[in-house]
Here is the input.
Amino acid sequence: MDNILHVSSSPHVRAKDSTNRIMAYVILALLPTTLFGIFNFGLKALLLIAVTIASCVATEWVFEKIVHKKSTISDLSAVVTGLLLALNLPVTLPWWEAVLGGVFAIAIVKMMFGGLGQNFMNPALGARCFLLIAFAADMTNFQTDTYTGATPLAAMRNGEVINTMDALIGRTAGTIGETSTIAILIGAIILILLGVITLAIPASYLITFVIFMLIFGGHGFDMNYIVAQLCSGGIMLGAFFMATDYVTSPITPNGRILFGICCGILTGLFRCFGANAEGVSFAIILSNLLVPMIEKITIPRAFGQVKEKKEGK
Amino acid sequence: MNKYTERLYNGIIKENPTFVLMLGMCPTLAVTSSAINGLGMGLSTTVVLVLSNLLISAFRKVIPNGVRMPAFIVIVASLVTIVEFMMKAYFQSLSAALGVYIPLIVVNCIILGRAESYASKNPVLPSIFDGIGMGLGFTVGLTCIGLVRELLGAGQIFGVQVLSLNWFTPITIFIMAPGAFLVLAFLVAGMNIIRKKMEEKGKPLAEPAGCLNGDCANCGQAAICADKKEA
Here is the structure.
């Protein structure tokens, strides 16, 4: 009540960053991808994105009403979750399944564990995996009027050679937001320039993935294959927008690199040896679960701290 | 309420093994993919529980304290073998659906828990009622979880299609393993809300029925007892 006398603990110099602002930056960075998705898949994609975002925001509002908490929908985090979830859905998904995904992301993955900052896995990816298990057929149905073939990843798995240029630009089948590597990279550059994310996680993720594919991909040093693998599926969207989620990635510098390596190895494992062609979402949420342990072993040494010597007898 | 109906109420509501004591989680999560499986598992456990409580209570004065666990296991295992053969003979499809979880009733913690904390210290008749109460509580819990999972995951109730597949897409995650955890968590949360409401109204569900003998380590009520001695 007396804010004048309220002195918080140090540091007293405040940056302008707030949850609100960072979320707005992320939305801005996702705009190229979103717009390309709408351009690529038509107005139906716009509808699905709107429905998913509305479902996430409404769920957060209703949940906080029920448990008598202050509403946090204005911090935009639910909007980001909804947008990311929608970008991870195929455009053919029935709208009510997308709504269910939004409810799962916010109510179960996020709010049940205490809201923003407390969730142990990325809400959007948690919901995507929920939908993937719950509606396996609908979630892997990428047949639209424009695209009747398999996704690039599925095609490559069948031994076909795909057009890398198409995968780079995004004129392929897939989920709404994953197809265009270029649009995602524009967003990633925006995020890096604005200082929202650092390169540690995406770089270690992608480098590890490339090394894994060189060794186990079965195509040797075929650069065409490696680039095609990088440009298709959700790996770019995952590496820049979802693995870098503040809440579910490590805060220690070395931990971030280790986290990226975990994501890369798991993604490679799932793509090479898994039952499905794609495994980015499972790789990232599994790595999310490892974060507490990663942070524990990568606490940086404080200045002047001496390593404890093992006592000899 | 006399002590027999008190035992039934205790097992089904107050100390429900599934929703309150959280015992026997392994079959709870594994076999409740449909209501009929939950019911079958619950009833077969109830049969074993009632008979084992009866026998253990009857033999409680002759079983030496040092070897009571092996003795309990022998009694329970014999009963489970009988139940297993009966199910194979008369309920073949259910027996096939429940699979290895029928023999695993031997190591179900509800049965050993009741033997240790109740039947081995109390006369035969209350022990039987304790077995019936706990068994029915377990059956109710499993059937509830099975009902929800079957309805959401297949649109059926006891194998009857109630949600038409014309407009309902089964949410198959609910009949798979993750669904078991989700549904159990929500039902336990619901139970806790009811419990809290009852306490606010001044009618607590979890009022300990009086200390048995001050032996908190072996008391079935220790989890919810307010006067528990800290170990």
The first strand of chain B starts at residue 156 and ends at 157. The CA atoms of residues 15 and 27 of chain B lie 18 Å apart. Confidence is low (pLDDT under 50) at residues 207-213 of chain B.
